[in-house]
Design a protein that fits this description.
By secondary structure, this protein is of the alpha/beta class. The chain has helices spanning about 5-15, 85-95, 110-115, 160-175, 190-195, 210-220, 250-260, 280-290; strands at about 30, 45-55, 70-75, 75-80, 100-110, 120-125, 125-130, 145, 180-185, 200-205, 230, 245-250, 270-275, 295-300, 305-310. The strands form three sheets. Strands 1-11-10-9-12-13-15-14 form an eight-stranded mixed sheet, with helices on both faces. Strands 3-4-2-5 form a four-stranded antiparallel sheet, sandwiched between helices. α7 links the parallel β12 (about 245-250) and β13.
Length: about 325
Amino acid sequence: MLRMTKNCLLIAQWYGRYIGDATPALFFLVDSAPLRLKLKPMPPPEKLFIYEIEGRVYPPDDLTGADFLGCWREGDHSYLFFPRPMEAAVKAWVATQESARYSSESVMNYADWEGGQPLMKTSMAGFHLCPVWETPAPAIGEVVIRMEPGLAFGSGFHPTTRTCLTLLRRVYDTEAPRKVLDLGTGTGILALASLALGAQRVVAVEYNELAVRTCARNLKHNQRRAEVDLIQADARDYAHLDAGLTLANIHLDVLLDLLNIPEFLRKDWYIFSGILGTQLEVFCQRLKGTPLKEVETRHENMWFAVLARGQGRSP
């Protein structure tokens, strides 16, 4: 199996929210200017052609035309995504790079990238999630969220997303946090759901640049761009920000690091997810060593989400 299949694909399908390096990345606050034009809905390709390259690369203009889906960087490897075969062109360009070496090609159905689920309209926890290329058909009282999943995590079908949406609604049935910190926002689905339930401002942090681009498009599709500060950065570098509610659907290692940051433990509400199987015991033991109190734990297909209450009084 390719490294892509063993690492990136598992992260995308399972944890999906954090691609980390040893050194924290520089961040940028995503500008809304490139999204002022009307967005054209973009149905996903049927197949993905993924090229693994040893080295952190930045492909040239002649490779990043209309057929280029993006570049995913994980540690010292890069992965170029295309909707059609591009092996010859990628190999030719990599051969000109002193610090890069071509590794392999991987081909998969887009549905497999999304965990084997076809992209279709679905309803859960009072939300109607609808791909942007389809017409919404919500039931009475359901909140519509338009989604373009791209190559990011958070189409609405993964158990972690569903359990987070259920817990999110429970929080807003109890009180209405005005400020939300969404660490590892992915497609932005939880940020959009928070705004739909009554949040006034969301800071959405995401490390992976492909996910950042997708999130920005989804904010535009839902006309929520002005209410979200979208930042490309390491989630841990923004854990100190004030918020009434913190969302962290992210890799377990990052969740444990967050619990070691004193400023992070001063919010009112927390929803943690991305916890698989036996990892729950590890997470809960660490949680008991903090001021946070577990309120509810939900699970689906061995994936767990934990709602916790803090002692802070953030807005």
